[in-house]
Amino acid sequence: xPGVYLFKKGxxxxxxxxxxxxRDRVRSYFDDDLIVTRGPRVVDMVTEANRIxxxxxxxxxxxxxxxxxxxxxxxxxxxxxxxxxxxFLYAVITKEKLPRVLCVRGKDIWNNLDNRVENKTxxxxxxxxxxxxxxxxxxxxxxxxxxxxxxxxxxxxxxxIFPFYDTKKPVEYTSKHHRAKLEFNRQIGQYPREMxxxxxxKSIRKVALxxxxxxxxxxxxxxxxxxRFAREELFENALEIKxxxxxxxHVQDVSLIKDEIDTARTKSDAVRIEAYDTAxxxxxxxxxxxxxxxxxxxxxxxxxxxxxxxxxxDDIASLKETLSRRLTHNEWELPSAFVVDGGMTHKKTxxxxxxxxxxxxxxxxxxxxxxxxPREIISARRAHVLEADAVLANAEAHRFAxxxxxxxxxxxxxGSKRNTAKK
Length: 423
Description:
The chain is α+β, with helices and mostly antiparallel strands.
């Protein structure tokens, strides 16, 4: 389960961190080789702490935002002293007719602080300073975010749900090059299209709620608006909000999970994982896939697709068939562990197939909740696999299965149209 954790001494917060798997991450602070993997500053912090608290979040993306909110609130010594303020990044929303969402380096803000001010504050919320840095009025600033790449990736994920502009120049800027680039990005779906100023500003307010760590408030607002639109029989508006809610709950933050794995992994943790998933529509066009994650990185050249020959709506039978066919390929490198989508029944099914084939490799199962989010990871520790690795492998298998199934359906529909045209 993703979330944030806080090391404390009494009521004082010493350190705030985020994790794809809270259990794996917190446990790692008590490994014998902590000083090698994390350094003396973290060892001192763990030694000083006498309490640990945590908060779970629905996604890694929300954990990243919550971490930044808590760092700003508590200014934990182990967070802010370990990295110069100049290396942090902030998300800023401008105060314009069409507000933009921008990344700003702490260094840029720091360099514009009045040198006469003693003990320069780490709270860079002074809007006058930000106007000097950006050349435009600012209405919101969020952060600090310890990882610049993670913040940028997070904003890309948020933009898929709630559209916004992030152009260097104001949206209304009139140069031909700027307008051409703007239109191109609109065409490829990167920037908003066909939105009124009022609609766009509503989207920006949603972005502000999310980046401000108020995702639960955002969800309640969306649900309330969706019900209001339904009552008013504005069904297209209600469906759009339903799409936003679904995307918010199922955002594919695989890249953030990978970053978490890179942070948690030690040099001796090299591991190769195979993960399996299936996709079908009422049993039709059933597809099973195998994906490979090696040292926390998808190895796409080793991905494989299986067209299910049996009943496509029987997940257990499909898993048996897929694993049995996979094990006939002796030329494919065997993994350190197999990851299956499902609970104990799926795990035991896979283990029996492996046992019957004389293969002694551990199986990990990823159990999902009703919203298709990881709820439990079975036997990851026994298989010497990071839970974050298992989550990443499972998410990548699901993504690949859905994409292959859509392709198969498209080809079938195209074939049907061609046959109809010939008659």
